[in-house]
Here is the input.
Amino acid sequence: MSAERPDEGLDRFKRHVTQLTEVLALRSIWHAHSAVHILGALSDTLLRMLRLSLVYVLIDPSADLDACDVWREGGEGLGRLREDELRDLLAPWIASDRSPSVGAAHDPLGGGRLAVASLPFGFPTPLGTVFTAASRADYPDELEMLLLQVAVRQASVVLEEQTRLQLQRNALAGIEARVANGIRQLTEANSELQGLQDGLAAELRAMADLHEFSTRVPVTSDVQSVLEQTLLAIMRLQNADFGNAQLHDPERGGLVIVAHCNLPLGFLENFAFVRDDHCASGRAAQARKRILIEDVERDDAFAPHRAIAAATGFRAVQSTPLIGHGGALLGMLSTHFRKPHRPSEFELRLTDLYVRYATQAIERKRAEEERSKLASIVENSADFIGIASLAGQALFLNAAGRKMIGLHDGEPILDDIRSYLTPEDSERLRSHIMPAVERAGFWDGETSLRHIRTGAVIPVLQHVFFIHESQTGRRLALATVCRDITERRRAERAASNAQEELAHASRLLSLGELTTSIAHEINQPLAAIVTNGDACFRWLECDVPDLGEARASLNRIVRDANRASEVIRRVQAFATKGTLIRSSLNVNDVIREVLALTQNELVREEVVLHTELADDLAAVLVDRVELQQVILNLVINSIEAMRPVTERTRVLSITSIQPDAASVEVFVRDNGNGVELQHLPRLFDVFFTTKSGGMGLGLSISRRIIEAHGGRLCAKPNPDCGLTLCFRVPAGGRAT
Ligand SMILES: Nc1ncnc2c1ncn2[C@@H]1O[C@H](COP(=O)(O)OP(=O)(O)OP(=O)(O)O)[C@@H](O)[C@H]1O
Ligand SMILES: [Mg+2]
Here is the structure.
């Protein structure tokens, strides 16, 4: 290397100072430029100022720079190198640590040597490395190195600044984005909150409406008005355009429109009566639950009604049924909407509450109507109807009851239920009737009320029962219905008198049949009296009157006279129409009395009499004459039945037994010809007779008498021949 001349050195110094000044100015020029531009301008400036063969800026892979590697060449042909060849050339510097370094490399094209200087840039964040190469052996001298360092430093500062700014910008953008996102979220939340607030306000209003409705409807006067109010309330709640309310007609089995809103005549005619229909209300009635049709155009089943829906102007409909206690359909509430629509869950829930209130109100109204109907029936009934507490305190008495016992208008009813009855029945109520009602829940029977003013006895047929709560079955009160049977009693008495008359007539007839034998029975003692009287005279007319014989004759006369008088007394007693007197007596005595009356008849008819009368028979409480009549009827029937019998001895058997402690039985058996089987069931019918002179009364009167005594009378054919008539009467009382 040749030594530099002083002036040459000065020139070079001046040139470098100028270059240095230019390089220092670069920073302000680059300020607003991009990284690509800055690195390109740096490379161009270095190439020119330092007369370089190559500048290569390698960007650090970790650097956050919006730039790529820059490659400039100074005209010696190094630009022909491929990038990998270039990297091979610079490999020692690329691999070295991040510090400025200078060295020599082999020029792969020219074959000479290349002086290389590398300078890393970027602090504190490494941004890259600037590689420079010149074919001059003295490159870089001290000043060039300084220039190189200042230039790279200038670019590095601008790039670092830009990197920092970029980072700040990025951070700012991130913050801005987060703020914007936050604002957006806040706005959304705010509008959501507003919506919620509006919704809550609407719900609150709806609840207030419902509350107001629930206090107003129970006092509404009638069912029609309940339905109208409910319809309007539901329409307001659901914001519906049309609506109608229907009532269920149980007789016709369908729904009838009773209230409507905004619906035209065509609709009302079309749905005037709905049964088994596919419209919403028809379906809801069948399913017993709400039906929602969100769009009638899309609901296939609704197709038949689409035209009327279009004409009316609705697309959606809901029908909610009113189901009463026990599942009965009471009616339907329907709302309609111009557009396809489905009411919200909240609206549907509130609709159900409205419908429940309406249902309760309707049921209450109907129950009130039922009650007032029942009350008017009770008030207008001709029977005594009374209600009392379970403890027996009278609470209510209807008009007929008040009249029956003589209470004046406005006069308070008697407090104690027993005071309505005669003293005997009042006691019976305590001892017998109430225990029976407790046991069975009711009691039926005859009692007597007492007229509070006159004290008159009013015979009634009384029904006493408990009134129960329908749902729980709990006893609520005691009730009674009494029917005045004074008239019936009178009629019964008249009938019984007629029967007594008949029985009397029948007795006279029976006696008629016995006339011959009675006459015979009286004639006998009379004849004996006459005979004894004659004898007595003779004993007295003797020279020496035989007083002993005369006394004996007189004794016989008295005996026979008594006999005759006894017969007459008996006939008289039997024939007299006396009042019935029941007394406790022995059936065997009555049998014997009858046999005494019929004895001659039996002899005349050649009937052999067998009697088997049980000893120690319990007494029975009967009317003597009536029981005589029964036995006499049976005996006469047997005698008459045996009259045609000639081939065998006629036998009449009378047996009395006591089958058990509670009853006495008497059998009257003959061996006559009996009855034809088809007549057997009719024997006791009034006027049934097979005899030419018969009345057909004997057995029917006998049965009535026995039954009036609480017994039974029946007929049974004997196994061989003849008939047995048997009666049973309850034992009781003491024999007199
Ligand atoms: N012991 C008997 N054997 C056969 N038939 C009898 C006997 N007792 C009754 N009957 C039949 O029953 C009928 C009805 O008897 P019931 O005593 O009621 O009437 P009656 O004897 O025909 O007429 P009356 O009114 O005068 O008694 C008789 O006509 C007779 O046919
Ligand atoms: Mg008879």
